[in-house]
Write a structure and sequence with these properties.
heterodimer, A: alpha/beta, three-stranded parallel beta sheet, 4 strands, B: about 350 residues, four-stranded mixed beta sheet, 14 helices, about 35% helix, globular
Chain lengths: ~100, ~350
């Protein structure tokens, strides 16, 4: 049977290399500053508050910073991302509902 | 910008066996669930001959994975969808359009909402490529409509990285996520077509991308403009709408018979939009308590304090309502409720 040259239709994800870079610089949570981007869905703030307590009491996180979006369906304001990236060692952009 | 020039699609050798090729593309989730046309080197070359842009040129980064949509990768996905080679410029323009920040592709691709991307073609390209604008224009039966919409979905999935259950978090999705494409019927039209309304020349060819939540048929035998506008506006009102929560951009496909009713009574497009906007206002109290919280977060800067009796307009301005004319004879028009946090984007097609 003859062979064909076929193409893979996918593309490298820009986010994969950024995530890998973040992993390589994080050395644990003790003394770290953790940011949360609150997606503005109902009750996410309560979930993030509980997680902040756990991060500080159990894992020694020094500081937690919360920033709320105006809606779940739009990206965070670039100014918020820029500010969090300066202040935080790690930022959690989760989804709660 | 030298890196993207070297951004070549990965290739591999495989036996010329259609069933085996489809099995592989299915296992790797490179299909939309339907059989694909194998993207062979020869087919991709034929497709690429229809663009003046470089094979490895970066067209856009496609959210949410921000994969690199080169001309080559767009062509590969277009071949898989069954597109004719001359469709490629439409898909290049559509990929640029979805990546415009105004469209909010990151939200559209990753949301639990069923939102699909609807392609609307205007200008000579629609006739050249035989994109259907009449009978069953958003249904089955026309190669260009079916394969263009399918190709864009494959681009969004394979290049954007939005696989169902992974980064595509749609609770149910909708059939329009397989394909959703039509042209505007510019021959049987009482007003300026969409691309002329948006500042393009009649002879320009354009593609518009719309974040469409679904389609709601409106069958009405109303024969007067005011009565027709009233029943359409009352169809728009629903308390589970993203549009009232965020201030949206609702779309309509008016059937020619309904468009003719407005024309006959001297209503221009702006008059129809204003009447629909006024008559579709909904009191805040119809929303659930949680949706009122969401609406406050989104719309307080626009509308001030929201009380139970505040009337919410579906969109910030009447001109945010969009109308095209398409479809065959009949007493039907289509309401296309939209994602809410998204604006349609139009791009000229470089033929």
């Amino acid at each position: 049977m003859a062979t064909l040259t076929l193409f893979d239709p996918t593309a490298p994800r820009a986010g994969d290399t950024q995530a890998a870079a973040a992993h390589s610089t994080l050395r644990g949570l003790a003394g770290a500053t953790v940011g949360f981007i609150d997606n503005a869905k109902p009750n996410f703030n309560h979930l993030a508050d509980d997680l902040a307590d756990l991060l500080q009491s159990r894992y020694g996180v020094a500081k937690v910073i919360m920033r709320r979006k105006s809606s779940a369906s739009i990206p965070a304001d670039p100014a918020v991302i820029a500010a969090l990236s300066l202040e935080c060692d790690v930022v959690i952009a989760g989804s709660g509902d | 910008m030298s890196e993207p020039m070297m951004d070549r699609a990965a290739s591999f050798e495989m036996a010329d066996d259609l069933e085996a090729i489809n099995r592989l593309y299915r296992e790797r989730r490179w299909s939309d669930g339907l059989p694909i046309v194998p993207p062979t080197a020869a087919r991709v070359e034929r497709m690429l001959a229809h663009s003046r842009r470089g094979r490895h040129e970066l067209v856009a980064l496609v959210a949410p994975g921000f994969g690199t949509a080169t001309v080559e990768r767009i062509a590969i996905n277009a071949v898989m969808a069954g597109c004719e080679p001359e469709y490629l410029p439409v898909l290049i323009a559509a990929t640029e359009a979805v990546a415009d920040p105004e469209f909010n592709l990151q939200g559209i691709q990753a949301t639990t909402n069923p939102v699909a991307v609807w392609l609307v073609l205007n200008g000579p390209v629609a006739r050249q490529l035989q994109v259907n604008s009449t009978f069953n224009c958003i249904g089955q039966g026309h190669w260009a409509n079916a394969t263009l919409g399918r190709a864009l979905r494959l681009i969004l999935q394979n290049i954007g990285g939005a696989w169902p259950g992974e980064m595509d978090r749609a609770t149910h999705g909708q059939p329009g996520k397989f394909t959703f494409c039509c042209a505007e019927n510019e021959e049987n039209h009482p007003w300026q077509p969409l691309h002329v309304e948006r500042g393009f020349a009649m002879g320009d060819s354009t593609v518009t991308v719309v974040g469409a939540e679904g389609t709601m048929n409106m069958n009405t035998h109303a024969k007067g403009a005011a009565e027709l506008a009233r029943v359409i506006a009352e169809t728009m009102i629903h308390p589970t709408s993203n549009e009232y929560v965020h201030g949206g951009e609702p779309w309509f496909i008016l059937g020619s018979e309904h468009a003719e009713i407005f024309r006959r009574e001297g209503w221009d497009k702006a008059a129809v939009k204003r009447e629909l906007w006024e008559r579709s206002k909904m009191a805040v109290k119809h929303l659930s308590a949680k949706e009122i919280d969401r609406a406050r977060a989104s719309r307080t800067p626009e509308l001030g304090e929201l009380r139970d009796d505040t009337l919410l307009p579906i969109s910030p301005r009447p001109e945010d309502i969009h109308l095209i004319v398409a479809g065959g004879p009949g007493t039907h028009s289509v309401y296309i409720p939209c994602f809410g946090n998204s604006h349609a984007v139009m791009r000229r097609i470089d033929l």
